[in-house]
Amino acid sequence: MIPSDDNTLELHRVGLRYDRGPEVLSNIDLTLPAGSFTFLTGPSGAGKSSLLKLCYLSLMPTRGLINLFGQDVSTLRQNQLQVLRRRIGVVLQDFRLIDHLSVFENVALPLRVAGKPRDSYIPDVTELLNWVGLGHRMNALPPTLSGGEKQRCAIARAVIAKPDLLIADEPTGNVDPEIGGRLLRLFGEMNRMGATVLIATHDHGLIGEFPARTVHLRDGELHEGLGSMVVA
Amino acid sequence: MIEATDISAPTPAKMAAPQTLLPARPEQGRALLTVLVVMAFLAALALLFARGADRLSDRWTAQLSSSSTVQILIMTEAERFAQMSAAQDILIRALPNDARMTSLSRAESARLLRPWLGDTGLPDDLPVPGVIRIDSEVRLPAESLETQFEAAGLRTVIDDHSRFSGQLKRTVGRLVLFGIVLLGLIGLAATAVSMFATRAGLAAQRDIIHVLVQAGATDGFIARLFVTQAARRGFIGAGIGAAMAAVLWFLISLGPARGSVGWRGLTDGALDGVALICLAILFALICASSAGWAAMRQLAYERRRA
How far does A229 lie from chain B, in Å, by closest CA? Predict the structure, then answer.
């Protein structure tokens, strides 16, 4: 496979197994062109979360190649991988908010890790939190938030650094349709600004509302589909 | 429902300082701090004791080196006066003007023999050695004096206490070395405690570390969090431990041991205070560097295992 600068992410014949267990993902070929918007669907246990972990470099494949932003990740040193990770925004199903940090601090975390001066990001974080409806909860701690608020906080954290690749695992699973629609528009806005977006979801309503390329994962194998009409 | 109104937006004061990324964990922190305080207290005591012993040795050595004795082996009691006078003449010529010379009488010299000969009176004709005590800041020119005494037909023994002060210095040197070894061992224990605490912290904060890694934090960034925490804890622990040791040492200096290893004045206290501050800083540095090293190693290990 020849990596292309036009593609944000390329997976070529990627396989993944945990320890000595069976392969949970087999011969995955996935290309996310720069600026594309892709839904990843599939039944529970199909390996969606594992595939996403490979995409945001939380796991390394047991075989195959991953090219991210034009670089073969297997050849990169730890610090280089961390530089790549800063270009990825991730929203996980379990949110992974830091309980002792306020909503503001949780959202500002990627900017803080990137070494941005505090004064430079306070207005951006405040504005984003207002936009996702958490402006009045900036000083609240995550354990005091509702499920929907946690999700919005996690999404705000994922997009605050204006990532080149935005990956979300069931991002609208815990919110009402109105907020779900608004969050999806946020992803769309990020996409229009140039970010490549990959969203794993069960929500076919969401897919129907936002026509985009859809890939379907079943039994550890990936199948290309279109919109909500997935072709196995 | 998205709230449009910002009813409790964070004030600038609340945002002025970033929150620490690692939680305080007060229950674990207190236990660890107690251990560090005890270790720092022992280290500070070892330091104060070593410095006190060194100062005491210097004082004693200075006292010893400023006084000497010359024993004149009197042949017969009839010759005592003549031999003592001859010895005194030689000493007056050899010593500086400010040297003080005290000749002991026969009775005073005989009293010095009591520990060996008992209280029974000595026969009058028994030649008791004559003793001349010399107090001088200048060291006695022993070899030159011996030659002159010999030339004058006097048999003498010059004791400038160099043998005793040498032994004293060697003994105190060993005590100081013991103190340094003790400090080293406590430093080693502090290193182990700090490393253990860091590993435990990394294990307990696994979720936070995962979020940080996903946000692009390097190992160095994460290790710095533990370094800062360990340095602060080490400095506070060492500060409390050193202060406790200083109070104890102050009481020792007031008590029955006054004039021994304790402080004899403000200078001693001030110098030891500086040494204790250096100890606290060193303690914090040991805690911080071992935490950083342990964190880097553990993160690398976790990654290899993953």
Answer: 31
pLDDT at B237 over 60: yes
Q: Structure tokens of B52?
A: 């006190």
- B-chain residue closest to A90, CA distance: B214
Share of chain B above pLDDT 70, in %: 92
Quick check: B86 and B72 in contact, CB under 8 A? no
SS3 B63: helix
What is the spatial distance between Cα B295 and Cα B35, in angstroms, rounded to a whole number? Answer: 20
Q: What is the per-residue pLDDT for B259?
A: 58
ipTM: 0.83
pLDDT tier, A4 (very low <50, low <70, confident <90, very high otherwise): low
- Residues of chain A contacting B18 with CB distance shorter than 8 Å: 105, 108, 112, 118
Q: What are A39's strand-pairing partners?
A: A199, A214
Mean pLDDT, residues B126-135: 86
Query: Could you read off the pLDDT of B186-218 as tens digits, one per residue?
Result: 999 999 999 998 888 888 888 899 899 999 999
Tell me the CATH number for domain A7-226: 3.40.50.300
| Sheet containing A221-226, strands listed edge to edge, beginning at the edge strand earlier in sequence | A88-91, A165-169, A196-200, A37-41, A213-218, A221-226
Please report, for chain B, the start and end positions of each structural domain, with discontinuous segments joined by +.
26-62+173-305, 74-154
How many Å lie between the alpha carbon of A221 and the closest alpha carbon of chain B? Answer: 23
- Nearest CB among B23, B219, B221 relative to A100 is that of B23
For residue A114 the two structure tokens come to 């990137």
The residues pairing with A33 across neighbouring beta strands, listed in sequence order, are: A7
Question: How far does the CA of residue B239 sit from the closest CA of chain A (Å)?
Answer: 28
